[in-house]
Design a protein that fits this description.
Structural class: mainly beta
Largest sheet: 5 strands, antiparallel
Strand order of the largest sheet: 1-2-3-4-5
Radius of gyration: 19 Å
Shape: elongated
Strand content: over 45%
């Protein structure tokens, strides 16, 4: 039911000044399902992220927003009984906040 999938990512980090950095990223992935699996939708995903980081001496704090868009088939019961799946166009977003100490 599965086949080889691929993922490509590209990112950019810009140093705004001594303490602040801005980041931008994008990516795409292909479907892991083979034609024989019977999955009707194409769960390939498009990804995008935007973030930044602030550094003071050996301390840093960062944030990022990330979004992924993909399609999905939903089977509530056995696919042989249900027949046609529920088709969903799904966005998924998240915000990440973190920090640390550099050694």
């Amino acid at each position: 039911s599965y086949t080889r999938s691929h993922e490509a990512r590209l990112g950019l980090e810009m140093r705004i000044n001594k303490n602040f950095r801005a980041r931008l990223g994008s990516g795409a992935s292909t479907s892991p399902y083979s034609y024989e699996s019977g999955v009707l939708s194409d769960p390939s995903a498009i990804k995008f992220s935007l973030g930044g980081e602030y550094r003071i001496s050996k301390y840093y704090a960062g944030f990022a927003w990330s979004g992924t868009w993909y399609e999905e088939d939903l089977y509530v019961i056995n696919p042989e009984i249900q027949g046609t799946p529920i088709h969903l166009d799904r966005p998924k977003t998240m915000v990440v906040i973190g920090g640390g100490i550099r050694f």
